[in-house]
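Lab channel / #folding
Pinned by the channel admin:
"Please post every new chain as: sequence first, then the structure tokens as a reply. Keep commentary short and put observations after the output so the thread stays searchable."

First post following the new format, from NK:
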Amino acid sequence: MATKKHDKPIAHKTTGKGKTYNPTEKGAGMTAKGREEYNAKNGSNLKAPAPNPKTEKDKGRKASFCARMEGVVKKAKGPAERAKASLKNWNC
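Reply from TO:
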């Protein structure tokens, strides 16, 4: 089976010095260190959240993210706390 370009996950650490994700209480999502580690490992270009977009591109990213995450929350079988926290973090 061929590997996909972006299929090398990073460790999901929410505490300690090397944390790569924020805990749910702090808005979920990746930390700057987590994005940096993921980008290096996968050759991708993840960007920080854009809760108050300044450019048209960022406005589009925010709209796309909010629509995608709202769908995740609606279709979730459980409470989807991390998805709700990320929506709050992006000001959706």
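NK: The two ends are 38 Å apart (CA to CA).
TO: also worth noting, The chain has a mean pLDDT of 88.
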